[in-house]
């Protein structure tokens, strides 16, 4: 009787229906298991607020990036672009930033070497019209940096002037004091921020160029050495300014004197900015009658980099009348003959050969001399050639 009941049509239909429902149950179970395993967001009401949280079996979802967190790609052009000279870095930050040196010597971009003209002044560039003529037409081959007294606000500088917006963050400078050397280092550090600057010239507001731009540019770029004046001078204004407590870092036979108006390449500029050992000794012991601007660089360069230095300055100055300051030149002193004399009446060595081009700049010229300089200098110096 039991076997017969399985053979009836009704029992067969029930069996197939049960099998179908069983198969559907398994399929739905698999689908729901997979779905709930990956479903990570649940809702829970706590203190009247709805919070999202993730299940233990899922990874937390990261929020979408906000507009501020999306940083645009900074290409090489942004990296090598010169920093604005009117930055807000402290001296400590500036010297650290400017002392960075790439290990790879070959540049992966087209670079035009520039000369950094660094003016250490009390106020305005007194002979700026002459310098405007000198620089005209040579854009891209030079950079200008001005360190002036903080009280000078540059309000009268026209926006069209090449000197507009070129003043670096400056501090007070006193003649003969260590803060004058700090100002020189500050100028060098700012100029080093532009990787295209390869030669660095320190000038004052009383300096003039003796040749046109192309001549000076070529002379500096082709030079194999630096131009920091350094000599050993016995007597009270030389060795007499040495302080015994500078030893053993700096010994008396190593003490040197020279003009503060230098010209140097990028490698030496980096060494000057990076030095802490020798400068700290000067800062501590070079006081009173020890004029740091006449001794720090001559001593430092002579001790560490003498083979890379000519030992002479490129800035002509007349000390023949004696006294603590060189001769000043006024309107009546300026003539074609006088300018020609400054340009060629001397002899020196340049890249191992004798030459009469020993000075590229001269000082001290007063604003009263400007009118005649504007008449004679462009012809004698062949500006715009």
TrEMBL record:
Transmembrane segments: 12-36
Pfam families registered for this protein in UniProt: Branch (PF02485)
InterPro entries recorded: BC10-like, Glyco_trans_14
Keywords: Glycoprotein, Glycosyltransferase, Membrane, Transferase, Transmembrane, Transmembrane helix
MF-aspect GO terms: glycosyltransferase activity
Broad class of where this protein is predominantly found: membrane
GO cellular component: membrane
Keyword Glycoprotein carried by entry: yes
Highest taxon of the lineage: Eukaryota
Subcellular location: Membrane
PANTHER family attached to this UniProt entry: ACETYLGLUCOSAMINYLTRANSFERASE, CORE-2/I-BRANCHING BETA-1,6-N-ACETYLGLUCOSAMINYLTRANSFERASE FAMILY PROTEIN-RELATED
Name recorded for this polypeptide: Acetylglucosaminyltransferase
Annotated organism of origin: Solanum tuberosum (Potato)
């Amino acid at each position: 009787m039991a076997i017969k009941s399985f053979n009836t049509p009704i029992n067969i239909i029930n069996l197939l229906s049960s099998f179908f429902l069983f198969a559907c149950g398994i399929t739905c179970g698999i689908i729901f298991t997979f779905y709930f395993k990956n479903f990570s967001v649940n809702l829970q009401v706590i203190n009247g607020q709805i919070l999202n949280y993730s299940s233990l079996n899922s990874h937390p979802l990261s929020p979408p990036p906000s507009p501020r967190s999306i940083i645009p790609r900074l290409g090489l052009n942004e990296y090598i672009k010169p920093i604005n000279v009117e930055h807000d870095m402290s001296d400590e930050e500036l010297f650290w930033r400017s002392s960075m040196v790439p290990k790879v010597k070959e540049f992966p971009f087209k670079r035009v070497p520039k000369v950094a003209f660094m003016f250490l002044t009390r106020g305005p560039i007194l002979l700026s019209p002459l310098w405007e003529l000198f620089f005209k037409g040579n854009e891209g081959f030079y950079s200008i940096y001005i360190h002036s007294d903080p009280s000078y606000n540059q309000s009268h500088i026209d926006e069209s002037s090449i000197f507009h917006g070129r003043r670096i963050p400056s501090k007070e400078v006193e003649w003969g004091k260590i803060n004058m050397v700090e100002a020189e280092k500050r100028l060098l550090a700012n100029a080093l921020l532009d990787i295209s600057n390869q030669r660095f010239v320190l000038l004052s507001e009383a300096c003039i160029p003796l040749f046109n731009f192309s001549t000076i540019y070529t002379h500096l770029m082709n030079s194999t050495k630096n131009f920091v004046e350094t000599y050993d001078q016995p007597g009270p204004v030389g060795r007499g300014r040495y302080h015994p407590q500078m030893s053993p870092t700096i010994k008396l036979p190593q003490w040197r004197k020279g003009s503060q108006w230098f010209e140097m390449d990028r490698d030496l500029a980096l060494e000057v900015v990076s030095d802490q050992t020798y400068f700290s000794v000067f800062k501590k012991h070079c006081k009173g009658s020890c004029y740091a601007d006449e001794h720090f660089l001559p001593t430092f360069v002579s001790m560490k980099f003498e083979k890379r230095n000519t030992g002479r300055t490129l800035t002509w100055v007349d000390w023949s009348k004696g006294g603590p300051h060189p001769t000043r030149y006024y309107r009546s002193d300026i003539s074609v003959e006088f300018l020609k004399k400054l340009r060629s009446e001397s002899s020196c060595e340049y890249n191992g050969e004798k030459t009469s081009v020993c000075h590229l700049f001269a000082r001290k010229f007063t604003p009263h001399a400007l009118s005649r300089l504007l008449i004679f200098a462009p012809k004698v110096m062949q500006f715009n050639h």
